[in-house]
Design brief:
Elements: H1 10-16, H2 19-51, H3 58-108, H4 119-127, H5 133-159, H6 163-172, H7 175-210, H8 212-217, H9 221-272, H10 287-329, E1 351-358, E2 361-369, E3 374-378, H11 385-392, E4 400-405, E5 408-409, H12 415-419, E6 422-425, E7 434-435, H13 436-440, H14 449-458, H15 462-467, E8 475-476, H16 485-499, E9 503-507, H17 515-530, E10 534-538, H18 542-546, E11 550-553
Parallel strand pairs: 3-10, 3-11, 6-9, 9-10
Antiparallel strand pairs: 1-2, 1-4, 4-5, 7-8
Helix pairs in contact: 2-3, 2-5, 2-10, 3-5, 4-7, 5-6, 5-10, 6-9, 7-9, 7-10, 9-10, 14-16, 16-17
């Protein structure tokens, strides 16, 4: 399946794809708000008739208004449920699309590029931060439309009975957006700082979990715990800053809402007592008119309060949007190829390297590697040995020079087919969360016991399996939990042997291993070469480099060392 394109137009483009559903959801929820005007009218008229003795039979006169009120309530609840459900479904689609685009982009970014975003930051963005879009899309956008439409409709409805009550609402209402804007500026800054700290803490957690074995071996548990405590303290402080602003804005909103409703109630009360004889179109103000205005007054402020509460959702979503767009734009260089499953590239597995450049890494001259050759790429740490292997595998795109494989240029059109002939033995092998059997036979049939046994024997890894509690059925984590680094590399060689590829690229296969384990890994790799595979290793190991047919030196060499 073709990988997602890296030209995703940011989060705004993903939201635009669901804009119709979001608009309809917000519109339906807004229409539900108008139903309350009819409900208030039903209640006000019914109470007025009962209080004035115009109802005849009070019980019969109460039943029909009650039925009408309940029917309107059901209609209102149904509209709100439908609108919010539509918006929620659209929001989930946006988040899913954003995660897919982010995963697609990161999957195509080369792990060898230093510009690649840290996996912890990507995980925090995908798993936690993108969830902040859901309340923004479901609450803020709906609240914004309701705040723009409903208060005006309610003021018109109140003014139909009393222009004074409508005037009170018009005076008190604009104060809420004014103070909301002032508080919102602080809320935006606080939310951005909180989101940054969440990403930092998640990245710290993932990095420390990966190094948990080393942390325990080095006795650094207390030091790591102190790091977590400091990070948690910073996150706690920034979260409390957001909550303080939220409570402050809520207090301001409640104050003006309460004052506005109280002033309407005072006017209605005095008007009904006959003390105030102005402000109503019918003199004196009727009980139905006063009760109608009084019931609508709280709902005049409710959309504004909802909008103010949702303003914090917008601040959080803005911070996530900027981080997402930056991740999509500033990600590392893409891997060559399209990510398609294709047949292996035909022709002899010859390799030719000409004047390769990638950032500060330089491999001058022409280097031809015939099929079946063993090659050591040597040089000081940081000179770019792993980078050269990555360019041969098509995992990095050279800034200059060229790589030819099987007689063809290594480019987007040939990289997928070329990698179908390549096996990679990394310095830190990555495993799937499954059995040893599934990990060794990753590219083939895990029921092929004979093939698995041959691969393990070739890599001198039978003893690794024998020491595990369940043998081939023992489960490994992604970092090879339960086995040592040397054992993991021997399983990596076994995986390459089982795959049967005719080009083996090994990145520091013997680094940090004891002499006996290093010799076992070396013999396994050489056996693959003896079976006809081209073997290219990036190594500091002089003994390993000395057993290769060809040596490619990068940078300054210390004597004749690697």
């Amino acid at each position: 399946m073709t990988a997602p394109q890296t030209t995703t137009p940011g989060l705004a483009g993903l939201i635009a794809g669901q804009s119709r559903r979001l608009r309809v959801g917000a519109l339906v929820s807004t229409v539900a708000g108008f139903v309350w005007i009819a409900q208030a009218a039903v209640v006000a008229v019914a109470v007025d008739r009962l209080a004035g003795g115009q109802a005849g039979n009070p019980l019969a006169a109460t039943v029909w208004p009650a039925i009408g009120f309940v029917c309107l309530a059901i209609l209102r609840a149904g509209l709100e449920a439908f609108g919010s459900g539509l918006a929620r479904a659209a929001a989930r689609r946006v988040v899913a699309s954003a995660r897919g685009a982010l995963a697609g982009r990161m999957a195509r970014d080369s792990a060898f590029d230093t510009a690649r975003l840290p996996s912890g930051a990507v995980a925090a963005l995908a798993a936690d931060k993108l969830e902040a879009l859901v309340p923004y899309l479901t609450r803020y956008r709906t609240a914004r439309l309701r705040a723009a439409v409903l208060p005006l409709a309610l003021v018109i409805a109140v003014a139909w009975e009393s222009w004074v009550a409508a005037l009170v609402l018009l005076v008190a209402g604009p104060l809420i957006p004014l103070f909301m804007a002032l508080v919102g500026m602080a809320a935006k800054e606080a939310s951005e700082k909180q989101m940054d700290e969440i990403g930092t803490m998640n990245a710290l957690m993932l990095d420390r979990l990966r190094a948990i074995v080393d942390i325990r071996l080095l006795g650094a548990v207390d030091h790591v715990a102190r790091d977590f405590d400091r990070s948690a303290g910073r996150l706690r402080a920034k979260t409390m800053a957001v909550l303080r602003i939220a409570f402050l804005s809520s207090a301001v909103l409640e104050l003006f809402s309460a004052l506005g409703v109280a002033m309407v109630a005072v006017y209605v009360g005095f008007a009904l007592l006959g003390i105030l004889t102005f402000g109503a179109w019918s003199q004196p103000l009727t009980l139905a008119g006063g009760l109608f205005a009084l019931m609508l007054a709280p709902d005049f402020f409710q959309p504004l309060r909802d909008f103010a509460a949702a303003w914090h959702d917008k601040a959080a979503a803005d911070a996530v949007t900027r981080e997402f767009d930056a991740a999509m734009v500033e990600a590392a260089a893409p891997i060559l190829g399209r990510g398609d499953a294709v047949a292996p590239l035909s022709g002899p597995a010859d390799i030719a390297l000409d004047g390769l450049r990638y950032k500060t890494v330089s491999l001058d001259g022409h280097h031809a590697i015939p099929p079946g050759t063993t090659v050591a790429v040597t040089g000081p740490s940081g000179v770019g040995k792993s980078t050269v292997l990555a360019m041969i595998a098509g995992l990095l795109r050279p800034d200059a020079g060229s790589v030819r494989v099987a007689g063809e240029p290594l480019d987007d059109g040939t990289a997928d087919a070329w990698r179908a002939r390549v096996a990679w033995v990394g310095q830190r092998p990555v495993f799937i969360a499954g059995s040893v059997r599934a990990n060794v036979a990753l590219t083939g049939d895990p029921t092929d016991r004979a093939g698995i046994d041959r691969a393990l024997a070739l890599a001198a890894a039978e003893t690794v399996v024998e020491t595990l509690p369940r043998g081939l059925d023992a489960r490994l984590g992604e970092t090879g939990h339960g086995i040592s680094g040397g054992e993991a590399r021997r399983l990596g060689v076994a995986r390459a042997a089982f795959a049967g590829r005719d080009v083996i690229l090994a990145d520091e296969p013997t680094a940090d291993l004891d002499a006996e384990t290093a010799e076992a890994v070396t013999e396994g790799l050489l056996q693959l070469a003896a079976d006809g595979a081209t073997l290219i290793v990036a190594t500091h190991d002089r003994a390993l480099a000395g057993r290769m047919d060809v040596r490619i030196a990068l940078g300054e060499q210390d004597g004749d060392g690697a």
